[in-house]
C-alpha cells in the first residue's frame, strides 16, 4: 500500500492539502478555498491523488475544511470520479457545507459525486445525505 504523506505548499493559504494513505486507499484533506484562481492546483491534486490510488481502492477527498468550492472545482471532481471509476477506484467526497451539497444536486452531479457528511461515512460507504 502507499507509504507516504504528501503536503502541498502550506504557505498558500488559498488552497492546500495533505494526503494520508490508509488500508482502504488514500484520504486527501483539503483546506482553504477552491476558485478560478487556483483550479489548476485543484486539478493537479486530483490527478496526482488518483494516480497514487491502486485499483480497487478508495480515494476520499475530505473537503470539510474548505471555505469555498467553485462550480468548476465540482465539475473537475465529478470528472475525476468518473475517470477513476473506469480504473476501479471509488472516489468519495466529504462535505460539511450544505451549500456545496445543494450545488451538486442542482447541477445534476449526484450520480458522479458520492458526497458524505463525515469521514466515517465515506470510509464505510454509508449512504450519502
Automatic annotation (TrEMBL):
A Pfam match is STAS
Its Gene Ontology molecular function terms? anti-sigma factor antagonist activity
Q: Which CDD domains match?
A: STAS_anti-anti-sigma_factors
Quote the InterPro entries the UniProt record gives.
Anti-sigma_ant (IPR003658), STAS_dom (IPR002645), STAS_dom_sf (IPR036513)
**Lineage: superkingdom:** Bacteria
Domain annotation STAS: ranges = 15-126
Entry's family note: Belongs to the anti-sigma-factor antagonist family.
Q: What is this protein called?
A: Anti-sigma factor antagonist
Amino acid at each position: 500500500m502507499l507509504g507516504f504523506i504528501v503536503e502541498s505548499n502550506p504557505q498558500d493559504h488559498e488552497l492546500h492539502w495533505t494526503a494520508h494513505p490508509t488500508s482502504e486507499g488514500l484520504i486527501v484533506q483539503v483546506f482553504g478555498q477552491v476558485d478560478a484562481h487556483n483550479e489548476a492546483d485543484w486539478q493537479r491534486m486530483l490527478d496526482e491523488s488518483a494516480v497514487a490510488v491502486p485499483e480497487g481502492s478508495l480515494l476520499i477527498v475530505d473537503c470539510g475544511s474548505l471555505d469555498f468550492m467553485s462550480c468548476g472545482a465540482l465539475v473537475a471532481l465529478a470528472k475525476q470520479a468518473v475517470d477513476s471509476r473506469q480504473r476501479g477506484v471509488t472516489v468519495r467526497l466529504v462535505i460539511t457545507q450544505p451549500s456545496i451539497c445543494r450545488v451538486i444536486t442542482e447541477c445534476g452531479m449526484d450520480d458522479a459525486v458520492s458526497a458524505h457528511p463525515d469521514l466515517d461515512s465515506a470510509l464505510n460507504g454509508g449512504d450519502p445525505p
